[in-house]
């Protein structure tokens, strides 16, 4: 991790979380393939097999995230977002030139590569905001991951509403928004997506803030589903359509209410002073220790959180020195800790997750890529409702998994041992034996 200056305070992490919502909506650009694939098919004169192969390119670009994963430990978030902006502009720019027939005669392989580059921006956007926000909220990683991935899942419905109500189902204008709109949005959010000092303790209001964020995301998902159904049944005027889109934008901005509330109504942190019968107890005699000494000594867990983003080279050097002196036994990382690639490849958990992701996610993207053709096969002229339903179910699964995983993590007794060993809470002999 680079040696960077952290933004201090309790409000900046929530500002970054609100900005991450918009970046994750932009990171859902890969879900738009069913909307503009019919235009690619007609303009280029492709058959269904060729369109399916382009769908494979869409999936490859959207799911190759090894380079962003490596880069997030070496470069700041704005660097990853910049790469995503460039990829998005170049990839979708080629597709826009093709659909509008501004450039004629582009080879099929170039369209394939352009689609890989365009959708690969998703991994750069998603990795930058997910890793940064999970580090900013180290005690609520599952909840943060569920909220942000939920917004990424509902992005397809957001694009569908814009495509239907504002763009009037124009594929060329949709690709123009993907080419210019997404880069501009991510450049605007770049300043707010930054590492912040994690909280050194548990804030009572933090749980309420997370509940508010989850409720806001659920409200957005329901609103998008209802809006899509209404627009498919009733013919809406331009004024009503723009009002509906404006309401959607306001709901998307709702997570910003948390840092605004923290600014207008700052929390007062009161220091608790234990009662004493006499002032004589406050001054110990010479050579005498008091029970409050251990309480006033900063805990190692607070030190760990305060130095969360220290230079890793210095930490590694200190650890190697301790290992050489025999003070610390070198061990492999446990579940929930950071693994290097070589350490992860020899773990059965890694391959189990890989197989589950391959089968589960693979089935979903296969249906998504062929959603337009599935709708046509069932006699549906308007397939936007299918995409919205797919996006809604995708959202429910993502945010639900984040909340459920956090519940089991918090109630897992084995985490007490991990907390003792990794955060330095081994103050007694029994704890030391557990860690050893």
TrEMBL record:
Residues annotated as signal peptide: none
Chief location bin: membrane
Membrane topology: Multi-pass membrane protein
Record flagged with keyword Protein transport: no
InterPro entries: MFS_trans_sf, Nodulin-like
Low complexity bias spans: 289-300
Protein name as catalogued: Nodulin-like domain-containing protein
Species whose genome carries this gene: Populus trichocarpa
């Amino acid at each position: 991790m680079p040696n960077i200056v952290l933004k201090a305070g309790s409000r900046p992490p929530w500002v970054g979380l609100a900005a991450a919502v918009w970046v994750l909506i932009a990171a859902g650009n890969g879900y738009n393939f069913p909307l503009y694939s019919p235009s690619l098919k007609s303009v280029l004169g492709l058959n269904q097999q060729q369109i399916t192969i382009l769908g494979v390119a869409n999936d490859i670009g959207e799911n190759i995230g090894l380079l962003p994963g490596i880069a997030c430990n070496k470069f700041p978030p704005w660097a990853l977002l910049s790469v995503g902006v460039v990829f998005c502009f170049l990839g979708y720019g080629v597709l826009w030139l093709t659909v509008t027939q501004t450039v004629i005669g582009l080879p099929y392989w170039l369209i394939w590569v352009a689609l890989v580059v365009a959708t690969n921006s998703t991994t750069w956007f998603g990795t930058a905001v997910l890793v940064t926000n999970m580090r900013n909220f180290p005690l609520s990683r599952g909840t943060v991951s569920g909220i942000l991935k939920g917004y990424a899942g509902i992005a397809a419905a957001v694009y569908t509403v814009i495509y239907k109500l504002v763009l009037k189902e124009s594929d060329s204008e949709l690709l123009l928004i993907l080419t210019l709109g997404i880069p501009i949005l991510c450049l605007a959010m770049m300043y707010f997506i930054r590492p912040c000092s994690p909280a050194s303790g548990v804030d009572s209001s933090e749980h309420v803030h997370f509940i508010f964020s989850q409720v806001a995301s659920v409200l957005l998902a329901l609103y998008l589903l209802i809006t899509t159904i209404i627009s498919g049944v009733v013919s809406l005027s331009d004024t009503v359509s723009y009002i509906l889109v404006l309401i959607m934008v306001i709901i998307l901005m709702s997570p910003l209410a948390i840092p605004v509330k923290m600014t207008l109504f700052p929390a007062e942190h009161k220091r608790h002073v234990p009662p004493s019968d006499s002032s004589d107890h406050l001054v110990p005699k010479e050579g005498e220790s008091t029970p409050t000494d251990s309480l006033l000594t900063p805990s190692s867990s607070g030190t760990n959180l305060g130095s969360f983003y220290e230079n890793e080279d210095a930490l590694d050097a200190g650890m190697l020195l301790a290992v050489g002196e025999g003070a610390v036994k070198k061990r492999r990382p446990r579940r929930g800790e950071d693994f290097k690639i070589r350490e992860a490849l020899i773990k059965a958990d890694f391959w189990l997750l890989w197989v589950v992701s391959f089968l589960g996610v693979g089935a979903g993207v296969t249906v998504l890529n062929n959603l337009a053709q599935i709708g046509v096969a069932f006699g549906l002229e308007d397939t936007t409702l299918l995409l919205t339903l797919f996006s809604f179910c995708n959202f429910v699964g993502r945010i639900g998994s984040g909340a459920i995983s956090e519940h089991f993590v918090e109630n897992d007794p084995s985490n007490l041992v991990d907390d003792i060993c990794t955060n330095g809470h081994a103050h007694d002999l029994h704890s030391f034996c557990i860690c050893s």
